[in-house]
Structures are given as structure tokens and as C-alpha cells.
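FYI - complex with flavin mononucleotide, inputs then prediction.
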Amino acid sequence: MLLTPVSYKNLDLRNRIVWLPMVSWLATEDGFVTEQLIERHQRRAQGGVALTILEATGVLARKSPKLLRISDDMYMPGLEKLVQAVHDAGSKISIQLIHFVKQSRSGWKQKVEELTLEDIKQVKDDFVQAAVRAKKVGFDAIELHAAHSYTLSSFISLLNKRTDEYGGSPKGRSGIVTEIIEMCREKLGDDYCIGARISGEEFVMGGNSLKQTKVIARLMAEKGLDYLSVSAGGKTEDGNWYSGYSGSRSMPTANLPFGCHVYLARGIREELAPLGVPVIVSGKINSFELAGKILTQGEADLIGVCRPLLADPDWIIKQKEGRQEDIIPCVYCNTCLERDQRWEPVECIVAEKKLQK
Ligand SMILES: Cc1cc2nc3c(=O)[nH]c(=O)nc-3n(C[C@H](O)[C@H](O)[C@H](O)COP(=O)(O)O)c2cc1C
């Protein structure tokens, strides 16, 4: 099942393996695509992934050096080249669209309660304009980043204490996302895939647990979502920039079990399967054996893999051929994350050491 093709609207996938979004800091200082970034994605496509989801890409111009951008038409030629390279290597490509509130590296962060209705309108418009650009340059899907600690996820969270129509009930808290889905649908058409990513559990005091996210996932699916990618944690309330427990769940550390978030995908899939909306699972899925089991047990529709494919772009080919001993293994040391936190190009230290030998 893992290696059999599947289609969702315009997304014809050659298997069920997805390379999850991973900030690379390979863009230029101003957010333009570079040759290294193209080569990174082309290489994973050559390695056999069915769908690659491009890293969190900014829909707004707010300062954030080296963040990849789609906030202006000037970014389109570079993105188009990247899309073409991935298509030429046989994969489909989605783009993760991110909006972030004002924040500093020291930990201060604007709260969603402080955003005016005018600000919210601007956030929605930023997403829709970015989505239109994404479709124009050839992305096969867009993904709204509503996981971890960014603007959309902060609205969805139980920690959102707004008292107007964008807070309170699950319907209110997810309102900004469902409105963006509706607006994107109108602009992108019925046949185009609109996905989203949420944290199935926020792992922070007073935040969403699976009980809340199941309801929110259903509300989003009912508005016409085409896939939902389930991540976990990533809130900054217990530690800035993925340094607390919640952060450690979004890039699960070596001490956590393999497939540690499968239960989240399974819980959410119970809500979405009747609506025909596929679920992407993530979190330490390091073998075909585990991936196959997840699919046959109906716990997810697509298998998300992130760090193992950074470590070894031929992970799929080697797994397929039973060449486990040749795989450059991800040991979940999170050195890649440490580099991310220092804004350095995100690379795998295990792969680097192997190449030096
Ligand atoms: C360095 C780094 C950067 C990441 N960047 C993103 C991102 O841009 N967007 C996102 O939703 N998740 C991001 N993630 C989380 C991954 O997509 C993924 O959910 C996580 O690493 C768990 O999957 P894995 O165990 O297969 O690595 C990042 C993870 C790492 C380690």
C-alpha cells in the first residue's frame, strides 16, 4: 500500500510518502529561492518522494531574515524554477504558507488578542494572495500553516482568549482558517488542493488536546479542505523557539518512541475519513515496516517523513531495496534543529560525518 499510487483531485501521487516541510535557511537574506534550495528538493524528488511540501514560506513582508517568501510577485520566478525541478524529477509539490505575528528572538510575542478586525482581514488577504501566486507558479497544492506557534495556530488554540467572533468556541477560534479556506477556494477553483497543518495536541498547559483538535479538524474539513497534516506541540508558551517540552514534541527527540504521534493522526482521521479528507501523519516514522502498519491499520492516509530524508535523500530507494545497512540514519539528535535555531543552513550532522569518511 505504501508504494501504490493514489490521487486526490489534481494531486496524482506515485506512492504515499511525503517529505514534510523543513525550514532550511537556504533562501537569500531577502527570501528568494537559491540554487541550493532547488537542488535540495530536486534530490528528494529523485529519491522517490511522492509529494514534497516546501518549507514554511512567508506570506507577509515583516522582517525575518532568510525566511523563504511568497509575499510579492517578485518571488515568483525563483519559486517557479524550484517547482519545475521537482516536477521534472517526478514528484508533486505543495507549499506551506506561514504568517507570523510580531515577535522577537528574546521571547516577546504579540498576542492574537491584540489583532484588530482590520489586522485579521489583512492576514486573510495575505494568505489568499500568496495562494494565488503559488497556483500560478505551478505548485500542485497549498498548505496553510496552522500548527506550532504561528498566527493561525494561535487563533485555533484554547489559549486564544479573544471575546469576539474569532475566539471562544472551536468555530470561533478556527474561523480565520475556515474563512481563508473559503476565500482560497473561490480564487483557486474546485479542482485545486488546499491543505493545512495543525498540531494534533499542543502539549502546553491550557492548550488544545486531541479532544479540541478533532472538532477543529472537522470544521476545517467541512469547509472544503483537501488534506490535513497532523503535527504536534511547537508552542512557545513553555520555552522560546522550540526549546520547551511542547517544542520537543514537534521535532520529537531521541527519547520519544517511534511513531509517537500516530495516535493523533488516528484520532483526527476518525473525524475526517467519513468526509473523504486524507490525513498526513508525522513524527519519527523511520521504517517502511512502521509506515506500512500505519496505513494498513487505517491510522493515516499518507506518511510524513522529515529528518530521515534530510539525512539520506535515497532513504526510500534503500528501504525499498532492503538495503537498511546503507541508509544514513537519522538518530533524532536534533542537531538540524539547533542549526535552525541559529539561522544556519539546516543540514544533517550524521550525513556530514559520513561524507567526511
Ligand atoms: C530543522 C527543522 C525545521 C522544521 N521546519 C518546519 C516547517 O517549516 N514547518 C513545519 O510545519 N514543520 C517543520 N518542522 C517539523 C517537521 O515537518 C516534522 O513534523 C518533524 O520533524 C517530525 O517529523 P520527523 O520525525 O520525520 O522528522 C521542522 C523540523 C525540523 C527538525
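Strands lie at 6-8, 11-13, 17-19, 51-58, 92-98, 141-146, 193-199, 227-231, 279-281, 302-305. The chain has one domain: 6-356.
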